[in-house]
Every structure is written in structure tokens, then in C-alpha cells.
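Lecture 7 notes: from sequence to structure.

We start with a single chain of 135 residues. Read the sequence below before looking at the structure.
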Amino acid sequence: MTKLTSIPERALDLASLVGDNLRSAGDSLRHSVPAMTHSAGQWLDAGAKLGALKGGARVAGGFVRRNPVLIAAAVAGAGLLWYAAKRRARRVEEEQDEHAIEGSSRRVEARRGSGRRAPTPRRNASSRQPSRVEH
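Now the structure, written as C-alpha cells:
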């Protein structure tokens, strides 16, 4: 583990430990002052998280000041990855468009009918009999 990751994690662990201890101590006081202990635990938890965030930001700021080239390379790499993903998505979309069936269509408007059915074409008697094929 590097110092960059261990310091904020340790601060969050300590803040969580302090919050748990205060909650367990506050459980006994909860019956005497219920609203105050509940909100105090929330305020303390929020303050501990903000303190850990502030400490982590200070460490990260020092790292950026000492290694600006590394940060610039990381930002450039992230930009290249984003651009490559965008191009790949565009290429996949174009490939899907190539497989589409080309054709034409026209809109058919629905009209209200007169209530009668359209006449069906009548078949004559010769069409009902199977045709004979001579060999």
C-alpha cells in the first residue's frame, strides 16, 4: 500500500472507530436526551468524514505538486481511452447500419369503411380440382 492510499483509509477507519464508540456511549444517554444524542452522532460522523476528506485532499495536492508530469500523463491517457471508446462505438454503429435492409416505403392512411366486406374473387370449379400432369 502506498502512503497516498493508506493515509485517507486510516483516517476513515479512525473516524469510524470514534463514531462507533460515541454511538455505543450515546445509547446509554439516549433515554435522557434522545434528540440531542442522535443529531450529535450524525454531526460528529459528518465532521469526521470531512476531516478525512480534507486530509486526503492535502496529500493528493502535495503529490500533484511533486509529480505534475505523472498527472498530465494520466489525464492524457484517460483522454485517449475515452477517444478510443468513442471511435469503437461509432465503428460498431456503422457496421450495424451496413447490415440494414435498404428499401422504400409509403404511408397508408386508414379510412373508415362502409361496413360491407369487399367482394372476394370467386374460384371456378376447375381450379378446385387438382391439375393432372401427363408424363
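The chain has four helices and no strands. Keep this in mind for problem set 3.
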